[in-house]
Design a protein that fits this description.
By secondary structure, the chain is of the alpha+beta class. Helix content is 22%, strand content 24%.
């Protein structure tokens, strides 16, 4: 039994499980900004009890806040004028 637990802990590609027993979701958010060349796409994990749109909105809030220190979009320093264009929810592969 201990060997099985240790094996599961050491497997790097084991799917994350939520409290409901389903694989954790990720979301790919696409953002645009006239001052940024091309699209900015960010993939984040969706926290349990949250939605894909809320996760993308959190990233958007950071991109439009000069006090946010997280790095997105190739570590851009553009902090304002961002728009959320698409939200695509993905299931992590098991």
């Amino acid at each position: 039994m201990l060997a099985v637990v240790l094996l599961l802990l050491l497997l790097p590609n084991a799917p994350q499980q939520t409290s409901s027993g389903t694989a954790a979701r990720t979301v790919t958010c696409a953002f645009s900004n006239p001052a940024y060349s091309g699209w900015c796409r960010v993939t984040e994990s969706v926290p349990a009890g949250s939605t894909s749109r809320k996760t993308c909105s959190s990233v958007l809030a950071c991109l439009n806040n000069i006090q946010c220190i997280k790095t997105y979009c190739n570590a851009t320093t553009i902090r304002g004028g961002w728009r959320l264009e698409t939200v695509r929810t993905n299931r992590k592969k098991t």
